[in-house]
Amino acid sequence: MTVQNATHLTLSPIGVVRAEGGAFRLEVAPPYRPALAGLEGFSHLQILWWFSGCEDARSRASRTEEAPYRHGPALLGTFATRSPRRPNPIALSCAGVLEIDRERGVLVLDYLDAEDGSPVLDIKPYLPSLDRVAAPDVPGWCAHWPASVEESGDFDWGAEFSF
């Protein structure tokens, strides 16, 4: 990220998401492949990616969401949601690592909630000592959601989201 001035930033994607036929992978651009060294052994990664379908002025002007969750409040602030419509359409996903090919710059993941072609902004290892909260509090309307990413696979997310 290069700071141009106090109000504008320039982001340079490091790669792209490939989501085809139920398979998920990141393709890391050649200049960034050396940064993959040492990822072996991490079971999960934090992926920062760009909601490329929400770059329009209307999506970026969104500050509230009307009934974004079927069991939630009628109105929530954008920062209380996982909506792609936000001032900066940056997404954060945790994904399990199935394979790493540093030479080709390919990371095969178990799942990623990004569309094919979405730009990847950064990759960070998931570290339980920094990323896991043992007993987080959540509002009552989402307290019935799974307690972990491992439990999320069988959950009916379609019955929860309105966006």
TrEMBL record:
Range of residues in the leader sequence: none
PROSITE patterns hit by this protein: TSAA_2
Pfam families with a match to the protein in the record: TrmO_N
Keywords: S-adenosyl-L-methionine
CDD domains, per database record: UPF0066 (cd09281)
Domain TsaA-like: 11-135
Protein family: Belongs to the tRNA methyltransferase O family.
Name of this chain's protein: tRNA (N6-threonylcarbamoyladenosine(37)-N6)-methyltransferase TrmO
Source organism: Bittarella massiliensis (ex Durand et al. 2017)
